[in-house]
């Protein structure tokens, strides 16, 4: 028997099996059996599934890696579907959703984002979310149709429903399309995602401690609708009070719907609610407002003599003052690194665009406490 003939025959059979497996793998990947960025089964599992040797599977996978259909990622075990095919139709556009670009905080964040992205050859599409979940969701649906390269957004603080559930719904839209994204200023509890914020807990702790060190003990906290940033600030306030041996009464924490406390709309019912709360606590000596909207409401009730604050009552603001005050004067305020948060968010997004498999990072920047109302 001609041995050389057998060798040629055997080799041809292996080539046949290898090509068949290669075609099947390509078909399955094209049919999105595994999505871009998803890990495919191991060589052993594929060998069992296709009833071929691991050598045949290995050879097919090597070719798919070489032509960038599959990829292997440093420091990660396994083989993944390459994301290149998903990105071929992407633009150099980044979607940015913030509460309001006319607000000092929002415009400074945006300036930081745009300054960084411009240097990277990227451009921004801006949405004023107006703390409106339906509007923001509709905006994201439109963005995803344009194949944007990535998204930066401040999670929505909506009066209409649950902060966590609603923002999870928006994030799910981005994840389904494998669009890189970075959360900015706020996070979504329970979700591991790229995020850049300031240290809300630490700065509120410092702000409250500054009041306590100056002899103020009965400190009222004005807070708004639930979101991660206000929740962390409230915890910082409570931690500082607890550390000084002060038990905080539930009446000391006044919760308002700050979505209704904009420069265009200072809702009378929210103003009345604040007035009633303060009138029921005549012996407080300081007030901490967790944002400018809440401070505006406080200024109105003093300006219109709806409520009279105790003599020498200290007013502290966890924000940089950006609203005109008529009767109030700040004892101290927190200045957050707004511009730097925007820059860091843009930089983190670019890293994620370039490395779709990077692990989520959460960056926290330090704020600064400033005595008085001038910065």
Report on the architecture of this protein.
- Helix 9 links the parallel strand 8 (219-223) and strand 9 (253-255).
- The protein is 45% helix and 17% strand.
- It is built from twelve helices and 16 strands.
- Helix 2 crosses helix 3, helix 6 (133-145) runs parallel beside helix 7 (163-176) and helix 8 (200-213) packs parallel to helix 9.
- The longest helix is centred in the first third of the chain and has 28 residues, at 3-30.
- By secondary structure, the protein is of the alpha/beta class.
- It has helices at residues 3-30, 43-50, 54-66, 84-87, 104-119, 133-145, 163-176, 200-213, 228-243, 268-279, 292-303, 338-354; strands at residues 70-71, 80-81, 93-98, 123-128, 150-153, 181-184, 195-198, 219-223, 253-255, 261-262, 265-266, 286-289, 314-317, 330-335, 362-365, 368-371.
- A six-stranded parallel beta sheet has the order 4-3-5-6-7-15, with helices on both faces.
């Amino acid at each position: 028997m001609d041995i050389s003939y057998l060798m040629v025959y055997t080799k041809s059979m292996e080539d046949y099996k290898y090509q068949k497996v290669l075609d099947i793998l390509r078909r399955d990947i094209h049919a999105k059996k595994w999505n871009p960025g998803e890990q495919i089964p191991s060589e052993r599992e594929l060998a069992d599934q296709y009833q071929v040797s691991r050598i045949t599977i290995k050879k097919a996978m090597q070719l798919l890696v070489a032509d960038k259909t599959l990829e292997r990622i440093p420091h990660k075990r396994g083989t993944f579907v390459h994301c290149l095919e998903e990105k071929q139709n992407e633009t150099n556009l980044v979607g940015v959703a913030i509460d309001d670009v006319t607000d000092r905080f929002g415009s400074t964040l945006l300036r930081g984002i745009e300054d960084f992205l411009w240097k990277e050859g990227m451009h921004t599409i801006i949405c004023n979310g107006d703390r409106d979940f339906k509007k923001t969701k509709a905006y994201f649906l439109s963005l995803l149709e344009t194949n944007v390269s990535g998204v930066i957004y401040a999670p929505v603080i909506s009066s209409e429903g649950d902060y966590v559930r609603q923002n999870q719904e928006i994030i799910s839209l981005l994840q389904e399309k494998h669009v890189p994204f970075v959360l900015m200023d706020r996070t979504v509890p329970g979700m591991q995602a790229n995020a850049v914020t300031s240290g809300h807990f630490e700065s509120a702790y410092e702000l409250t401690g500054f009041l306590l060190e100056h002899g103020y003990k009965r400190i009222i906290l004005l807070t708004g609708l639930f979101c991660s940033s206000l929740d962390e600030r409230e915890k910082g306030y409570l931690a500082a009070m607890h550390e000084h041996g002060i038990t905080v009464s539930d009446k000391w924490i006044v919760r308002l719907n700050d979505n209704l406390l904009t420069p265009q709309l200072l809702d009378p019912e929210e103003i009345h609610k604040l007035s009633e709360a303060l009138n029921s606590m005549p012996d407080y000596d300081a007030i901490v407002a967790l944002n400018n909207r809440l401070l505006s409401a406080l200024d109105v009730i003093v300006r219109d003599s709806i409520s009279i604050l105790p003599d020498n009552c200290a007013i502290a603001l966890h924000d940089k003052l950006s609203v005109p005050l008529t009767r109030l004067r700040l004892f101290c305020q927190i200045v957050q690194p707004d511009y730097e948060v925007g820059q860091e968010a843009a930089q983190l997004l670019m890293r994620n665009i370039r490395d779709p498999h990077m692990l989520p990072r959460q960056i926290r920047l330090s704020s600064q406490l400033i005595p008085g109302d001038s910065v």
